[in-house]
Amino acid sequence: MAETTAVSGAGANGAPALVPPPMDESAVAADGGGAAGTATAPLRVNDETFMRSTVQKTVKEVIGAEEYAHARTDGWTNDIVDNLVKNLVALDRSYKYIVTCMIVQKCGAGMRSSTQCFWNPASDIGLSVQVENPSMYVITTVFACKA
Question: What are the angstrom distances between the C-alpha of 122 and each of 126, 145, 146?
């Protein structure tokens, strides 16, 4: 059975730590994970929906409704990737994580990016998530590869 971990307390920079959503009780009982409602939820690193919400939450905690300021983009991108890696490692250390982040000012200019990876589609995941506020786009890419 896979090791499970619950994360509590504060994450990097005092931000709340990310915790996987609870598992459906019937799935716990069917999995032999103990009495319904008593088992810890399995980690969701390879769950695209969970990963997307994790990225969105982290970006919003760092950027919020801040106005675009070029001088601050270095700190914001570093905080986003640092917080994401720390929180993901705390959830599941059996993955190797690669996180990139771009911040682009909303000014009508175009931007294109492409990423490619060779991996095991049964266990690894990669996704890009765009979060925006009135003055900027934040594009974050996360790869989680089973170690």
Answer: 12, 10, 10
SS3 call for 99: strand
Q: How many whole angstroms separate alpha carbon 116 and alpha carbon 134? A: 30
> Residue 34 above 70 pLDDT?
no
Domain ranges of the chain: 12-18+41-146
- The residue count of the chain comes to 147
What's the half-sphere exposure (Cβ side, CA atoms, 13 Å) at 44?
A: 19
Q: Is the dihedral of CA 29, 92, 125, 113 positive or negative?
A: positive
Residue carrying structure tokens 């690193």? 45
For the domain spanning 12-18+41-146, the CATH number is 3.30.1140.40
How far apart, in whole angstroms, are the C-alpha atoms of residue 76 and residue 63?
A: 7
Stated pTM of the model: 0.70
Count of CB atoms situated within 10 Å of the CB of 94: 13
